Amino acid sequence: MLSSPARHSTDRTDVIVVGAGVAGLAAARRLTDAGLGVTVLEAAPYVGGRMSTDKVDGFRLDRTAHFLTPSSAELRRTPGLEKLALRPLSHGVLVRQGGRSQRFAESRGARGPLTAARALASAARSPLGGALDQARVASFLNRLAAMPAERVLARPEVPTAQALGTRGLPSRTVECFLRPLLTALLSDPELTTSSRCADLALQAFARERLSVPTGGASTVPELMAAALPSGTVRTGVRAVSASTTSVDTAEHGQLACRAVVVATGARAAADLLPGLRLPAFHPTTVLHHTADAPPMAEPALVVDGDRQGPVSHTIVVTAADRSRAPHGRTLVTSVVLGDAASEPLTTLDKAARAHLGELYGTQADGWQLVTAHHDPEAVPAMRAPHDRRRPVRVLAGLYVCGDHRDTSTVQGAIVSGGRAASAALRDFGLPDAGTPAALPTAA
Ligand SMILES: Cc1cc2nc3c(=O)[nH]c(=O)nc-3n(C[C@H](O)[C@H](O)[C@H](O)COP(=O)(O)OP(=O)(O)OC[C@H]3O[C@@H](n4cnc5c(N)ncnc54)[C@H](O)[C@@H]3O)c2cc1C
């Protein structure tokens, strides 16, 4: 056990947390709540990591297009996020296929009974199968929403692509709805992700509306940082090595402490903690275009049922949150996945605008690219079998957290931060409100 620090330290550092993404900020909050003195070191000049928002010419531009966060109730239970303002997107998802759009959503009981005549009539009209397939999807999503998590997790774990045919949906619905939606939810066009992670993502989608944080993704880490004791976070400080009792920094030499939590992304964590397994990654490019007029009035997640262009999914983000663009401007945010994400930007932008024109049924040639953000290591892959509770305790005094220890989501990162803090508190012999059951050693 580590020697107990004085309770409620304010002017000393018991624990250094390296990285001010949501994982590090969640860990810092749990540790300060227990009375420890905590310093969070962040290499960038701002907090947030992958949840950063660039402010350019009156636009608020997320680096990571955070509109697939259905766990708003859970997020608001995170200390510091009680007052987080989220703007909901339209129900379900709009699938664009063969020049037509069709909404697939859980049933809200508002559409009235589906008669055989109505189903057959619309099936004949639509390449996606019409009302019958919509009803099947609604019933599939309703069943999944009601399913206890243990039952979801008891299903065989295989690559998602392999599980698609076993979910009781016709193959055209799988190809036009399920595959593009899961691609968007998992940032994984090959669907190599564990089917359990995919089912959990779909379940969250079925249970709650997608939403975007008002003002941009960075609102989330900014609120979390603001809820920490003043002076806890030091930006512009890069850790170059870490041990159980100190962190060497590029700017300020060695900083002493009694424990260290490494809360960086997976690659930086593997550099600071040699021996830590490095996952594969899904690359992404996020494109922000501005247009004179909105191509669509509603804030709907649009996915490509034809999968014939570089854009995986897109929304008119200003339709959900007006604060994202200057007065009179429209902001369309789109995500490119897989190999296309690595295309040179001029080629990608041209192809994306042509594709966006098809997806929105409009002319997008004149849209202007405000900015693009490419991240070759955007999302840690969650291949089957995926351990959603990877160890966070390296040894007494040294801990690791981040989305690569849990699920590759905001929620996963926050949970991992809490687990790492719990492990440290246990080693300090301090009480903790949410201690996890087991603390195996990290690998
Ligand atoms: C395009 C895209 C879309 C996404 N969409 C969603 C979504 O809709 N919903 C969802 O739930 N999740 C989404 N995610 C995933 C989510 O953004 C991440 O899982 C989450 O933000 C990871 O948080 P983290 O704290 O683990 O890591 P990070 O945010 O990467 O934070 C790590 C921090 O450590 C800092 N750091 C690194 N090295 C050092 C060092 N040596 N010294 C000091 N500081 C250092 C970094 O600067 C960074 O601030 C998306 C990700 C991407 C890329």
Question: What does this molecule look like?
Answer:
- The protein is an alpha/beta fold and 443 residues long.
- It has a seven-stranded mixed β-sheet with strand order 7-6-15-16-17-14-18, with helices on both faces.
- Helix 1 packs parallel to helix 9, helix 1 packs parallel to helix 13 and helix 4 crosses helix 8.
- The chain folds into three domains: 139 residues, FAD/NAD(P)-binding domain, CATH 3.50.50.60; 142 residues, Protoporphyrinogen oxidase, mitochondrial, domain 2 (Polyamine Oxidase, Chain A, domain 2, Alpha-Beta Complex), CATH 3.90.660; 98 residues, no CATH class.
- Bound molecules: flavin-adenine dinucleotide (FAD).
- Flavin-adenine dinucleotide binds next to helix 1, strand 2, strand 14, strand 18 and helix 13.
Q: If strands are numbered along the chain, what order do they take across the biggest sheet?
A: 7-6-15-16-17-14-18
Number of domains: 3
Looking at CATH, the homologous superfamily of the largest domain is Protoporphyrinogen oxidase, mitochondrial, domain 2
Return the CATH topology of the largest domain: Polyamine Oxidase, Chain A, domain 2
Radius of gyration: 23 Å
Kindly provide the name of the CATH class of the largest domain.
Alpha Beta
β-sheet strand percentage: 15-25%
Largest sheet: 7 strands, mixed
**Distance from first to last alpha carbon:** 21 Å
Mean pLDDT across the residues is 90
C-alpha geometry: globular
With helices defined by DSSP (H or I, 4 residues minimum), what is the helix count? 13
Q: Assign the CATH architecture of the largest domain.
A: Alpha-Beta Complex
Please tally the β strands and state the result.
Answer: 20
Hetero ligands:
flavin-adenine dinucleotide
